[in-house]
Each structure stands twice: as structure tokens, then as C-alpha cells.
From TrEMBL:
Function recorded in the entry: Increases the formation of ribosomal termination complexes and stimulates activities of RF-1 and RF-2. It binds guanine nucleotides and has strong preference for UGA stop codons. It may interact directly with the ribosome. The stimulation of RF-1 and RF-2 is significantly reduced by GTP and GDP, but not by GMP.
SUPFAM superfamilies associated with the record: EF-G C-terminal domain-like, P-loop containing nucleoside triphosphate hydrolases, Translation proteins
Molecular function, one GO term: translation release factor activity, codon specific
Organism: Xaviernesmea oryzae
Keyword Nucleotide-binding: yes
Identification of the protein by name: Peptide chain release factor 3
Pfam family, one: GTP_EFTU
Alphabetical UniProt keywords: Cytoplasm, GTP-binding, Nucleotide-binding, Protein biosynthesis
Gene (name only): prfC
Broad class of where this protein is predominantly found: cytoplasm
GO biological process: regulation of translational termination
Sequence similarity: Belongs to the TRAFAC class translation factor GTPase superfamily. Classic translation factor GTPase family. PrfC subfamily.
Length: 522
């Protein structure tokens, strides 16, 4: 019997992996894809990194610095569920990209290095998840190496993140003796992930013989203590973002990864409701709705195309259907939506709420755009962060000013930089959240547009989106401060201030003007 829409939607799990660099995100992604059958050999994700020289030139930056600049999506199926992993750039200079990606997930896996515990970037990413109440599953990685005491790690998560922990499995052994996981709830054990299902045992004593003699008592005692002292897993509390189930393992040595996939299937929520301006949209509604959270250019050097990554919020997307683009009210034919697997993409004939499809286009779609089957609604919440660094772009060849303007507009539409056009007609200002974004801009302008540029310090260092309840108040401010006002890509006004002191001064002088550090796309 054909699957109903509700059934198809309920099998979707869309999540991101958050981690401090080096905790093991890439290795874990590889293993998830491997066990999900999406790739034949572990190492494909890494291999993809190495193949980058065959991709467009600007990715040299990524290669040279060994960081992942590109966000993408990977899909695999396991035990009847469809998993969509949304990858996020590891480097904090691309944080805005990561934050926008997190608006498109329903859950997150937090990977923690068992020796290092909570690191700065884990904390930051966690805070973004908390702002959006995204449920989090914790994976304590690298148990095959010298690690901290598991109770100590749990305490640290509770203290630093103010998050209740519920260990679902307990590690059998440590570092050299680490040999599997013990499920505290149902008394099953799994050695390595080559064991697809766990084996039921009578209690921790039954497994202790897998350990050297001097570690056996400790293991049995720890399991008893974990059962008595730790909270049991409460799914409701997890879904509300108050509690995290914890798993111990080693992505590299294939331990605990199946526990994690099962947890994603059993605990993580199916596609959530999404808030739009006029109403809340439920995932299992008939009609398709989606929003764009990411634009990526030149994924394939053979087709200099631009892919908009759209998260489907409700219904079913069918290849060839027409969608209404909320920002312009125009129709858009979805003739070639794509799915992404480990190393290739494929035409998507149908996709359901929770799925992410790539929509090739030539600049029609922008970050934050809403697509529907006709209904006039706009999804809320894709954030735009005010830049920390503002620069003027200096062209080496002044004859190419027009070309530069077009190129900057395109880069801004992709979310590489933000672009502000001053009201007084002076040259445009680019804004970025992290300095590496400027390097990417420079590299791409040179490689893709033949425009060698340098950057000049502008007299501004702070930028705020401005609005007022009464239009006349805004007009008054804009007229009075014309030299410090610019428009963003959407034509929305921003106030550019020299420093935070003058920002504070002006906002006290003009209390009717709201100055926002974050703009939500609309
Ligand atoms: P990312 O920066 O978070 O993507 O981390 P990677 O997946 O690239 O891993 C960083 C390093 O840790 C690599 O050298 C991995 O081989 C290693 N690594 C990842 N997982 C484990 C593990 O479970 N045990 C050990 N011993 N090393 C691991």
C-alpha cells in the first residue's frame, strides 16, 4: 500500500551535528553515512575534502586552512527512517551560516571529546540551539582514548549548559579496554557497531568478564551508581530542550554509533511545526511549503550554478511543480530539485516535509525566501546578524566598478557578505561577521569575476537595522543622519555608527528609533 503523507513525514529526522573543531564531527558523519548505507567506504567524506582541488578555485582557502567553509546536506536511510544531516562549517568566522542552518533542523547531536569536555564552540552552538529549543542528543566521543571520568563529564554538561543529563548507555571499559556500551534502560550490550542489535543480559555482572579483572568491580559499581544517581530519560523533557540523553562511544573505532542512530530514530522529533507570519504550518499538511536557509554557488565547476537549499516545512514537493515565491509573488518552476548523498547529487522526484532539497537557480532565490503552493505566507526566524567588521572594497582597476557592483550583489545574495549602499551615494560597504569571510570574498572576486580587490577600513565599525513605530520618526532620523544611513540588500535602512559609544549616544538621542543587531529575513 502506498505510504500516506503523514507516514512519510513521520519517518523524517532532520538534524545537525554541533561540535568544537576536532571533537570528531567529520568522523561521526562518515560513520552515520556508512551505517546508513549511503556510502560504501568510510573515508568518503574526507576524500571529498581532498578532491576539492577539482572544485572551484575559491575553495583554495578551505584547503589551505584545512577548514570546512561549505555547508551541505547529506541523506541516508536506516531502519525505516530517513535521516537528513545538515552540515555546518566548523570555523567560527562562518557562524552566521551555521546559525541559519540550525533554523532548518529539528534536533542536534552534540559531540563532545571525552578528554576535553565542553569546549568554547560547543557552548556557543549549544546556546543557539537553546534559543530555538532544539532537542539535543549528546555523544561522548573518543572513549577509546584517555578520557575523563564519565560522571565528571555528565556533571560538566549539567553545570556549564544548565541541561539535565540522562545517560542511556554506559561505557564498558576506558581507553585501551573500552569495548562497547551497556544500555542502562534495557540491559542490552553492544560490542562494536558491527553488532547490529544489542544482546540482552541479566545485569552488568554478565559483561564484566569482557574487562580486565581489576576493572570489573568498578564497572559494575558504576552501572549501579549511574542507575541510582542519574535521571532516567524523559522524552518530553528532551523535546522541550531541558534534558539530553547521553551516549558514549568512539566514532573512529565504530562504537556507539548505532546507539546514536537508534536514538535519533526513537527519540528525535519528526518535522516540527513552523511559524509563519500569518499562521503556524504543520508538517503533515497537504500543501507544500518551504524556506531557503542557504545559498551555495559553484558546487560543481562544470555547471556554474547556484543552489538554494530549501527545508520543506509541510507537504510534498514534486519535481516539475510550480511554487510561489513569497518575496516577489512570482511563480517558480521546480524543474530540477536535488537530493544530496555522500558524494553525489541526484534529481529529487518527491521530497517530504523535513527533507532538504537543492534548487538550482540563477539568482531568483535568496536566503530567507518562502515557497508555497500559492498561499501568501512568510516563514519567520531565519536570522541575519549585524556584521562585526565593515569595509570598503577597493578595486585595482577602476574601470570595472560596474562589474564589481554586480559581483558584490551576487555575493551578498549568497550570504557570503552583507552589502550596504550608503544613502549619500558613496561606494558600497561590505560587512562580515568573521574575518575569514573577507578572505573568501577576495578569493572569489578574483577567481570567478577576474576582479582583484583590497579592503579599506571604513569610518564605521557598528551597524544596526533601524525602524520606528511611526514612519515620520524614522524619516526624521534618516534625514538628520543621512551620511550614516545605508540600505541593505532588501532596501531596509541601517544606521552605521563609528563605534559603540556613538551608537549608544544616538539611540539615547532618538528613543523612538529601534536599533536591532539581528534582522530576521522576511
Ligand atoms: P572534526 O574537526 O570535529 O570534524 O573532527 P574529525 O572527525 O576530523 O576528527 C578529528 C581527529 O580526531 C581526527 O584525527 C580523527 O581521526 C580523530 N578521531 C575522531 N573520532 C575519534 C575517536 O573516536 N577516537 C580517536 N582516538 N580519535 C578520533
Amino acid at each position: 500500500m502506498a505510504e500516506t503523507l503523514a507516514e512519510a513525514v513521520s519517518r523524517r529526522r532532520t538534524f545537525a551535528i554541533i561540535a568544537h573543531p576536532d571533537a570528531g564531527k567529520t568522523t561521526l558523519t562518515e560513520k552515520l553515512l556508512l551505517f546508513g548505507g549511503a556510502i560504501q567506504l568510510a573515508g568518503e567524506v574526507k576524500a571529498k575534502k581532498d578532491r576539492i582541488q577539482t572544485r572551484s578555485d575559491w575553495m583554495k582557502i578551505e584547503r589551505e586552512r584545512g577548514i570546512s567553509v561549505v555547508t551541505s546536506v547529506m541523506t541516508f536511510e536506516y531502519d525505516g527512517n530517513v535521516f537528513n544531516i545538515l552540515d555546518t562549517p566548523g570555523h567560527e568566522d562562518f557562524a552566521d551560516d551555521t546559525y541559519r542552518t540550525l533554523t532548518a533542523v529539528d534536533a542536534a547531536v552534540m559531540v563532545i571529546d571525552a578528554a576535553k569536555g565542553i569546549e568554547p564552540r560547543t557552548l556557543k552552538l549549544f546556546e543557539v540551539c537553546r534559543m530555538r529549543d532544539i532537542p539535543i542528543i549528546t555523544f561522548i566521543n573518543k572513549m577509546d582514548r584517555e578520557s575523563r571520568d564519565p560522571f565528571e563529564i555528565l556533571d560538566e554538561v549539567e553545570e556549564k549548559l544548565a541541561l539535565d543529563t540522562a545517560p542511556v548507555t554506559w561505557p564498558i571499559g576506558r581507553s585501551k579496554t573500552f569495548c562497547g556500551s551497556y544500555n542502562l534502560a534495557d540491559n542490552t550490550v553492544r560490542g562494536s557497531d558491527t553488532e547490529i542489535v544489542g544482546t540482552k543480559v541479566n545485569g552488568p555482572q554478565a559483561v564484566a568478564s569482557r574487562l580486565p579483572e581489576n576493572e570489573r568491580d568498578d564497572f559494575v559499581n558504576e552501572v549501579e551508581l549511574a542507575r541510582e544517581a542519574c535521571r532516567p530519560f524523559d522524552r518530553q523533557s528532551f523535546l522541550e530542550g531541558h534534558m539530553t540523553p547521553v551516549f558514549f562511544g568512539s566514532a573512529l573505532r565504530n562504537f556507539g554509533v548505532r546507539d546514536l542512530i537508534n536514538a535519533l530514530g526513537d527519540f528525535a522529533p519528526p518535522p516540527r511545526d513552523q511559524v509563519a507570519d500569518v499562521r503556524t504550518v504543520h508538517a503533515a499538511e497537504e500543501k507544500m511549503t518551504a524556506f531557503v536557509f542557504k545559498i551555495q554557488a559553484n558546487m560543481d565547476p562544470n555547471h556554474r550554478d547556484r543552489i538554494a537549499f530549501a527545508r520543506i516545512c509541510s507537504g510534498k514537493l514534486e519535481r516539475g511543480m510550480k511554487a510561489r515565491l513569497a518575496r516577489t509573488g512570482k511563480q517558480l518552476g521546480l524543474t530540477a530539485p536535488q537530493f544530496f548523498f555522500a558524494s553525489q547529487r541526484q534529481l529529487a522526484d518527491t521530497a517530504f516535509a523535513g527533507d532538504v532539497v537543492g534548487i538550482p537557480n540563477h539568482g531568483t532565490l535568496r536566503i530567507g525566501d518562502t515557497l508555497t503552493e500559492g498561499e501568501a505566507l512568510v516563514f519567520q526566524g531565519v536570522p541575519n546578524f549585524s556584521p562585526e567588521i565593515l569595509r570598503r572594497v577597493r578595486l585595482e582597476d577602476a574601470m570595472k566598478a560596474k562589474k564589481l557592483k554586480e559581483a558584490l550583489q551576487q555575493m551578498a545574495e549568497e550570504g557570503v557578505v552583507q552589502l550596504f549602499s550608503p544613502e549619500d551615494g558613496s561606494p558600497a560597504i561590505v560587512g562580515v561577521v568573521g574575518a575569514l569571510q573577507l578572505d573568501v570574498l577576495k578569493e572569489r572576486l578574483s577567481a570567478e569575476y577576474g576582479l582583484p580587490v583590497s579592503f579599506e577600513i571604513s569610518r564605521f565599525s557598528v551597524c544596526r537595522w533601524i525602524s520606528a513605530d511611526k514612519p515620520e520618526d524614522l524619516d526624521k532620523f534618516v534625514t538628520a543622519r543621512r551620511g550614516d544611513i545605508a540600505r541593505d540588500l532588501d532596501g531596509d535602512p541601517v544606521f552605521l555608527a563609528q563605534d559603540s559609544f556613538s551608537l549608544r549616544y544616538e539611540s539615547e538621542r532618538y528613543p523612538a528609533i529601534k536599533m536591532a543587531a539581528i534582522k530576521e529575513y522576511h
